[in-house]
Recover the amino acids of this structure.
């Protein structure tokens, strides 16, 4: 595999980052994952805008213009002969002396590499399962959700819970018990022909594919509601689906909870955990999800 490190393409086995890099030491950095179709990057301006936004909020210098980074992404794709693939763009604070002060690092580190591929066509056909973990989403006052941060411990813990539950993805609640987002996806549900998705104010990242799906659905005549929802709202859903850069749009066919308490405030008295995950919803790939996926594929 060929990767792009700082300003050149090199063999992945020779791609080394300093042990003094603050991305390694402190998780100080940001990333974006983009998807290409026939070497054309989908919604690149939106991804670059979000990367710049994350960098600005961290006071981190973005190493390159939109054109420079886009050309680097395409170089990675062509070097690996992968016209239809995803590329992860990582920007860390860079190497510097030990210490939390960002000023210690004069130059950021830039790395780009292919994202592992998944058989998404199979997932579109059969759907996936999701779980509601016990771990909650970071509060926005603790970590701004609009920073796509390299520090993923919050979602790693949720992913570990998901593995124990045997689900494909976990969708975190915030401290008030409202749905936010998955570890790498956004969630939608359908009820009586209307689409619902958690509002950004619940504490979630503004997904690029999420935005594209909202615009597509509105043009197709669907009513979109962005609000505060709980796992109880998922129980009443006709359909549920996830969106992300790598998954596009995938149906959810099962929702399970890690414990008996699947809603409510984080300050409420917790009930004993169930000895095993509890299924709170079961469905199948639905008409609305399929129609939106068809519209999305036509857009591509």
């Amino acid at each position: 595999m060929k990767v792009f490190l700082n300003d050149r393409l090199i063999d992945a086995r020779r791609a080394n980052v300093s042990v003094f890099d603050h991305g390694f030491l402190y998780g100080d950095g940001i990333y974006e994952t983009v998807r290409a179709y026939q070497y054309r990057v989908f919604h690149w301006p939106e991804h670059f805008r979000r990367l710049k936004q994350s960098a600005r909020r961290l006071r981190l210098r973005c190493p390159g213009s939109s054109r420079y980074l886009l050309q680097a992404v395409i170089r990675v794709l062509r070097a690996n002969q992968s016209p239809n693939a995803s590329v992860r763009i990582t920007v860390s604070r860079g190497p510097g002396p030990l210490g939390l002060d960002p000023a210690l690092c004069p130059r950021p580190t830039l790395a780009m590499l292919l994202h592992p591929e998944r058989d998404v066509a199979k997932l579109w056909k059969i759907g996936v399962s999701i779980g509601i973990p016990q771990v909650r989403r970071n509060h926005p006052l603790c970590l701004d959700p609009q920073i796509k941060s390299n520090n993923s411990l919050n979602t790693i813990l949720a992913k570990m819970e998901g593995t124990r539950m045997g689900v494909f993805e976990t969708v975190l609640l915030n401290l008030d018990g409202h749905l936010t987002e998955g570890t790498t996806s956004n969630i939608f549900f359908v009820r009586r022909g209307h689409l619902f998705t958690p509002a950004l104010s619940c504490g979630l990242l503004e997904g690029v594919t999420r935005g594209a799906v909202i615009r597509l659905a509105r043009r197709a005549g669907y009513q979109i509601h962005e609000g505060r929802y709980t796992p109880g709202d998922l129980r009443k859903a006709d359909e549920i689906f996830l969106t992300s850069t790598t998954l596009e749009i995938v149906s959810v066919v099962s929702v399970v909870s890690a414990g008996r308490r699947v809603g409510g405030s984080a300050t409420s008295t917790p009930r004993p955990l169930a000895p095993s995950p509890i299924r709170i919803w079961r469905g199948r790939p639905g008409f609305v999800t399929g129609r939106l996926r068809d519209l999305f594929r036509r857009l591509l």
